[in-house]
Amino acid sequence: MAHDTGPHAARPSGLVGKQVAGYRIEREVGRGGMAVVYRAKDLRLDRTVALKLLAPELARNDTFRKRFTYESRVAAAIDHPHIVPVFEAGETDGVLYIAMRYVAGRDLRHLLDKEGPLAITTATRIAAQVASALDAAHDHGLVHRDVKPGNILVAAGTDSDHPEHVYLTDFGLTKKSLSLTGFTTVGQFVGTLDYVAPEQISGRPVDGRCDVYSLACVVYETLAGGPPFQRDDDMALLWAHQYDVPPAVSGQRPDLAPGVDGVLAKALAKSPDDRYGSCLAFVAALRAAVVGEPERAWAPPLPPAWARPVFPGGPEPEGRERLP
Ligand SMILES: Nc1ncnc2c1ncn2[C@@H]1O[C@H](COP(=O)(O)OP(=O)(O)O)[C@@H](O)[C@H]1O
Ligand SMILES: [Mg+2]
């Protein structure tokens, strides 16, 4: 690497064509709150990789350094067909990097921005793959904490039965001690708040069920075209996650079987205890609802207002409010 163009001295876009550690940077593929991701060539093995570099201005921030290092270890520890494999992580010239499989395709954020709501079959296929990745992470005692469309990479699948192969990436928020509130108190970028679970907001302990909530927000968006809560400012959005009832998806997608609303309501329950116990249990219930099967394993103690039957002239069920 030329000394006057080291990554810590250069703007990220200035790195194209340069060598970082053993990698030659080919082009920028995306950037998030704490890193820039490049397509690069591993010069030792002559293979294409995705090279993630910590934003230079954050490299000296201990919190971010720890999170970045932890992300690489966590992701490398899990061998799963729907989790992006990590090849190497390290530090060069004061810049932290992580090399992982380059996933040709788009992330779900771009897909939704371009194509809008997805067909229910596509949405459930994608959800099932992300769910299996998350449940595997949970089996390793790891909580992802940042499930969002930008962290779901959609590559071409193998055949018409599997039109897409989905990878979950970015375990940067998995460290249990780095709570959402921890990040906000140091005044750093947290990322989108569209998918964050109520217990993450209030700083309560989180487990895999916070990923159930976030996955449900993502599934909701793939069906409705937007996340469950859309508010003008962050405070209102955080409030909505904690206290507001998500609007029924069937209001925006009349083609959906009515049972889908109840499944999403359960996955989006404010209390983790009221949610599905795993991501795959959520997706199984979603699939059953889509084909109109009654959900056998679970009956809601208090169905959301939109799901309850209305008997003309009959008494209002106790404890339930009438919605306009
Ligand atoms: N392994 C990968 N292969 C291809 N593209 C990737 C890979 N990892 C990340 N990307 C792309 O880089 C973008 C930025 O990633 P990241 O820094 O994690 O930010 P964010 O997750 O907030 O979007 C992602 O949205 C994705 O489009
Ligand atoms: Mg990411």
Task: Give a verbal description of the structure.
The protein has two domains: 84 residues, Phosphorylase Kinase, domain 1 (2-Layer Sandwich); 179 residues, Transferase(Phosphotransferase) domain 1 (Transferase(Phosphotransferase), domain 1, Orthogonal Bundle), CATH 1.10.510.10. The strands form two sheets. The protein has a six-stranded antiparallel sheet, covered by helices on one side. It has a three-stranded antiparallel sheet with strand order 7-8-9. The termini are far apart. The longest helix has 20 residues. With 324 residues, the chain is of the alpha+beta class. The site of adenosine-5'-diphosphate has 20 residues, from strand 2, strand 3 and strand 6. This is non-specific serine/threonine protein kinase. InterPro entries: Kinase-like_dom_sf (IPR011009), Prot_kinase_dom (IPR000719), Protein_kinase_ATP_BS (IPR017441), Ser/Thr_kinase_AS (IPR008271). Its EC number is 2.7.11.1.
If strands are numbered along the chain, what order do they take across the biggest sheet? 1-2-3-4-6-5
User: Helix/strand/pairing class, anyone?
Assistant: alpha+beta
Distance between the termini: 65 Å
CATH topology of the largest domain: Transferase(Phosphotransferase), domain 1
Number of strands: 9
Q: From the alpha carbons, calculate the radius of gyration and give it in angstroms.
A: 21 Å
Name a few traits of the molecule.
324 residues; alpha+beta; Phosphorylase Kinase, domain 1; Transferase(Phosphotransferase), domain 1; six-stranded antiparallel beta sheet; 9 helices; disordered C terminus; binds magnesium ion; non-specific serine/threonine protein kinase; Kinase-like_dom_sf
